[in-house]
User: What shape does this take?
Amino acid sequence: MLTATSSVQYLKGVGEKRAEQLNKLGIYTVGDLLSHFPRQYEDWSAVTPIASAPRDVPCCIRATAMAKPIERFIRKGLSLYTFSAVDASGVIRITLFNNKYAAAKIEAGRQYLFFGTVSGSLNAPELSSPLIEPAESGTRIRPIYPLTAGITSRYLEKEVGLALLALDKELDHDPLPHALRSQYRLCTYRYAMENIHFPTDQTALETARRRLIFEELFLLQLGLFRLKNPSHTTTAIHVKQDYTADFQKLLPFSLTGAQSRAIADAVNDMRGTSPMNRLLHGDVGSGKTAVAACLAYTVVRNGYQCVMMAPTEILAQQHYASFCRMFEHDDRIQVGLLTGSLTKKQKDTVRAQIEDGSCQLLVGTHALLSDTVRFQNLGLVITDEQHRFGVRQRSALTAKGESPHLLVMSATPIPRTLALIVYGDLDISVLDELPAGRSPITTYAIGTDKRNRAYGYVRKFIDEGRQAYVVCPLVEDGETDLVAAETYVKTLAEGPLKGYRVGLLHGKMKPREKEQIMQEFAQNRISVLVSTTVVEVGVDVPNAVLMVVENAERFGLAQLHQLRGRVGRGQYASSCILISDAQNEEATRRLKVMCATTDGFRIADEDLKLRGPGDFFGDRQHGLPQLKIADFLSDMTLLREAQDAARDIHAKDPALKTVENQYLRTCVDALFARIGGGLN
Ligand code: ADP
Ligand code: MG
Assistant: This one.
């Protein structure tokens, strides 16, 4: 007997070759086939009379062929087959191109369903290359599936039909408990599966879709809740005293209102009895680091340790340097750095200081996750993630303490809907105010013919004492990153930037070399930093005022926004020059958006519209399963409902141990198992 986990090859009509083709669509099991949902539908259910057929949208006509099609040979390789068909309202002329096979099946006097877009005048309607079915096959809504070479939608339709029959018993096994279905007015699993593939009418289709979207978002959310800190735990870490005022004295500037509010929110959380779970959401340059530093300071002054994890060595290094500077005159707080590139001896020293408590604030990269890193009393975990860490990495770090507080920092390009999913159970603070005295960044998109002018601009600013970034052209086929970058730097240094101090930062350099270059740039011993995109995340050099991006068309909006965020961080007016000759519509649109706004939220929404949610996190590195049916832009209300439902169930039965939630747990596990390898 077949089950959902049986190989799809056991279905009638699926041989080895077919199975391979189906694999390309992500279909391995019979269950996969059933959750290969149609991407759209052809509505053959509403039959339109010929006389009132619309001209711009496809429709279904039921008419009788008046004669067999006549073949007309137009030229070599092109034959037309024409015939007329009639219904009670009129006659329509039908043309088939080169389709001998379809033409041969048409019999005079027999009734057919024709599906297509009608053209021609009101008196002489025409239909070119319609889909044709004998009228007996019935009027209904037909599914159109996402396809791959060799697989047709009709074939999938047939196999899905067989799969539904084969799994008939299993369809009564509903992942959503009865009580939940009735509370949120959701149809049964059986109804949903039958109607998403073969809807009886539009209403049934909507009902099925709603239920499946809900289910998907609900399972996703429930899975995420289970991965994260269970919210009902209590924490042993009690932050009694707020040291924000003391911290402010260590800073050369005053905190913005938004920074102070975020700090107050977080301190308030940390005074509570359950661990803080807070997202600090702020656009590039909004000053998240100072907020992190203040909270670290408060936690340390209350007698606990704090750890902060950054996605790259450069960033970890930079945070370490700025923390050292801030806390230079306060010997109650010792800062340590732990990254992969340290020598074993250096690592051992830091690890010992962390374990015995003589170092209280530890900054680092993934190296922090190692088992050998043990804290004396970890009170606060901070991740500066710019969407790079998965939930599991966060939990790995919090597991090093006894329910420590958690602060997740993220730069904006993430639409609010997505934030709700990824950070579903986190409270959110938004830094919606840039530090005072920032001048706006002006953005230009230019063609390569104006490149020389751009470099004239670079020279002008350097002559005034400022600095610039140039992001390298991306590699061509057959070239390596390094060769491309080195050739490019040479061209610049011997050409438009002759006589200027040009440095190269490249992804393949050793961490120590990168650090060296970054330091020279930070100290203005290098004027122009030519770089591959390693500079994208977080780097902070306020004296840099110009960002030039070559091949700007090859970057996504979020990346461009991050790159541009490297300038405009100080008191000087800054510019961003995007160089591109791209003509294609999407690339042009991205560049337009960049020139039109510097608002991270707007850019994120545009990005989502342009790319779709599937792509948003760059593959699966975020530990989110690919959604099959839900859509983050349009399903906001359902998302909220699904979240409420997940929160309820999670609160009552966090381990999903009760009998009625048993099957639910299997489904959540299965969803997350699919991405198992991707979660790290
Ligand atoms: P991001 O939010 O992108 O991580 P940073 O924390 O790197 O931003 O801060 C950007 C720059 O703004 C840094 O040079 C930092 O010193 C400066 N900065 C942060 N807060 C303030 C403030 N309240 N007033 C002035 N400058 C600030
Ligand atoms: Mg930052």
